[in-house]
Fold this protein.
Amino acid sequence: MTPYRLNRLFDPRSGRALDVAIDHGFFGERSFLDGIEDIAQSVATLVQAGPDAIQMTLGQARHLQAIAGKQKPALVMRTDVANVYNTPLDEELYSHHVPFAVEEAVRLDAAALCVNLMQLPQHPGIRGANIRSILALREQATRFGMPLMIEPLVMQDNSVAGGYMVDGDLDRIMTLVRQAVELGADLIKADPSDDIREYHRVIRVAGDVPVLVRGGGRVDDKTLLERTVAVLDAGARGIVYGRNVVQHRNPFGITAALMAILHRGAGVDEALRLVDEVRP
C-alpha cells in the first residue's frame, strides 16, 4: 500500500480522522435509512459540517464526488453487502463484495476501501466469505495502491440482541482485530470494548496499523464524547461514526464537537458546548 491517498483521510496536524458512515442503505434494512432517506441532502449537510471523510457505496458516491472544490471530505468506499442485520435472520445468509471494487474506487477517487470481517455466533460461513472477499480485494488494492480498511465486527447472537448489536468482549475484539492485521489491513475499523479502560490492548495487537473506532448504535452526546476521548487516549487514530452524526438533532454541532476533540484535543465539557452552539 502506498500512503498517498491516506494524506486526504488523516488531518496533517493531529494525524487523526473522523469518517462519517452513510453506507447503511447497502444492507437492505428499512431501519438503517433513518437520517439518510434523502442521500443527496445528507451528503450536502455533511460536506457543510466538514468531517475528514464520508463512507459511502459505489452507487451513491457520485453525490459526494460531483461537488466542486478541493475542501470536501475524502471518500471511503464500502465494498461488501450482507444480510446479517435483520431480526429474525434470513434462512440463508450471504456476504458478497463488489467484484471490481478497487477499480471503481480508483475511478471515484476514493481515499480508501472498507470491507467487513464479521464474527456471527453459529454462522462461521459468513466469516469465511469475508476472508475470501478480503483476500481478493487485498490483491487488487496492492496493485492499484488503494488503502484497505478492514472492519472486524464481533456480533452478539441475533436471537438475543437483534441485528447490528456488537459484542464488546475485549478478547474477542482483540482476536478479530489481529486477524484483520494478519490479512493485510492498512486500516482497522474496530468495535469499542465494554471496558473502554482496556482499549489500549486493542491498539497494541493492531501494532502499526491505524485503528479507527466504530460508533455503533445511538447513544447520548456525553457518552459518545467521553468514549471518543477515551479511545483516542488509548491510541486510536480516529473514529467512524454514522447514526450518532446523521440522526443527531444537529449534525453540524456534533461534527464540530468531534472534530474539536480529534484535532484540537478539546475536552468533553468544551465539546458538549459546541454541540448546541455550532449551526449551519
Q: What stands out?
A: The beta strands are 17-21, 53-56, 74-78, 80-82, 95-97, 112-119, 148-154, 187-190, 211-214, 238-241.
